[in-house]
């Protein structure tokens, strides 16, 4: 299946007027698949457990940056900003959330109004693109993204921009879904509506690792965390409005080796 001609327009709709975060598949103003702990079988998952999975994915990404108190981090594609607020509050650092959607940033300011006040300037938001970051060179200690890179058409540009704004010794981390190297990523479009439309782009994870290396990063690491994502997510989907839709095929794609969920990290050398 061929993608629709203007995939970016679809993404802008999803994260603007449509408000993807309002769907029950997501909860607590987060928009990610979650990093899940062990769940007892044969019972429904609570909304509190779903929200906890969202937050834990942010913690996994943040911890990989090895943040120190007072560090300045940049989140690419911050959406509603609750993940940025969590990282800023739990790690005693400054987090700036970047998003291309003015509508999402308006929502982020409203949702996080109390956190912005309580954190005393340690949480801020800025409009811009991950492929053209509106920050000075060597201006942040860490750059991260949570389930955003699948919406970017030029990941090499993301890698170059992240390297540019990072100080020497700064770290990059991203969590999202890719194709395992060697998998038939094209087959995913027949199973997942967002991939068929072009809203999500499934690339081999090794291609993005190579983009990071080409941009000047070192110590590039690719870690599969799918065991903490797919089966638990599918259980949650069965409790939502997507329980009889194509969304159940995420697990199928994982089990057939077509996709996986990864934590990708890298270091800008001193």
From TrEMBL:
Keyword Methyltransferase appears in the UniProt entry: yes
GO molecular function annotations of the record: methyltransferase activity
Keywords: Methyltransferase, Transferase
Assigned EC number: 2.1.1.-
GO biological process: methylation
Gene3D superfamilies referenced in this protein's UniProt entry, alphabetically: Vaccinia Virus protein VP39
Keyword Cell inner membrane recorded: no
Transmembrane segment boundaries: none
Boundaries of every Methyltransferase type domain copy: 74-173
The protein's name in its UniProt record: Class I SAM-dependent methyltransferase
Species in which this protein is naturally found: Glycomyces rhizosphaerae
Organism ancestry: Bacteria, Bacillati, Actinomycetota, Actinomycetes, Glycomycetales
